[in-house]
Automatic annotation (TrEMBL):
InterPro entries named in the record: Homeodomain-like_sf (IPR009057), Recombinase_CS (IPR006118), Resolv_N (IPR006119), Resolvase-like_N_sf (IPR036162), SSR_resolvase (IPR050639)
Thylakoid among keywords: no
Entries under Gene3D superfamilies matching the protein: Homeodomain-like, Resolvase, N-terminal catalytic domain
Resolvase/invertase-type recombinase catalytic domain segment(s): 3-137
Coiled coil: none
Protein name (database record): DNA-invertase
PANTHER family on file: DNA-INVERTASE FROM LAMBDOID PROPHAGE, SERINE RECOMBINASE PINE-RELATED
Source organism of the structure: Iodidimonas muriae
Family stated for the protein in its record: Belongs to the site-specific recombinase resolvase family.
Length: 188
């Protein structure tokens, strides 16, 4: 008897699986496997692996949304092939994809490609934003301990014979922070 096997995932531990699990249960899934605090980009998703291992011929693996299964088109296609090789199907509730039909298989490939394109565009925008911020002297993460003038002055003083410990005390930073800052600026 073909079964509907559900899979739900959230990326962080503070997110809640209830909405996904409820939707999967309403779709008739039993069992439902869940991963919490696991990125879709990660290969090691224990519950997902178990869900795939549970799928048999005629079964359908059902997810709430396409990105719950994978973060790349290549990986989606590989997973779809694993299911096809088992004689099983894939269904996404949100995107209304059901690979048991020819049209569902076609839509699956198109939406997978669109999802990957969207992620690549977001990545490109993020990288462009980080580069623009760096050009303005702003960097992600904690604020820099030393500004560029302090780094140049410290490098000049070091070349004049000052010790690392003296300079570190003067600029109120760790010696390693001072060394790294000067090296990163190309002043050593």
């Amino acid at each position: 008897m073909p079964r509907k096997i559900g899979y739900a995932r959230v990326s962080t531990l503070d997110q809640n699986l209830d909405m996904q699990v409820n939707a999967l249960r309403q779709a008739g899934c039993d069992p439902v496997f869940t991963d919490s605090g696991t990125s879709g980009a990660e290969i090691d998703r224990p519950a997902f692996t178990l869900a795939l291992d549970t799928v048999c011929e005629g079964d359908t693996l059902i997810i709430w949304r396409l990105d719950r299964m994978s973060r790349s088109l290549k990986h989606l296609m590989e997973l779809n092939q694993v299911l096809t090789d088992k004689g099983a199907y894939f269904e996404s509730l949100t995107e209304k994809i059901d690979t048991s039909t020819a049209m569902g298989e076609f839509v699956f490939h198109i939406l997978g490609a669109v999802a990957q394109l969207e992620r690549e565009i977001i990545r490109e925008r993020t990288m462009a934003g980080l580069a623009a911020a760096a050009d303005r002297g702003s960097y992600p993460g904690r604020p820099r301990k030393l500004n560029s003038d302090q780094i140049r002055n410290a490098a000049r003083e070091k070349r004049r014979g000052e010790s690392w410990s003296t300079l570190a005390r003067r600029y109120e930073v760790n010696q390693e922070t001072l060394r790294r800052s000067i090296a990163d600026a190309g002043l050593v």
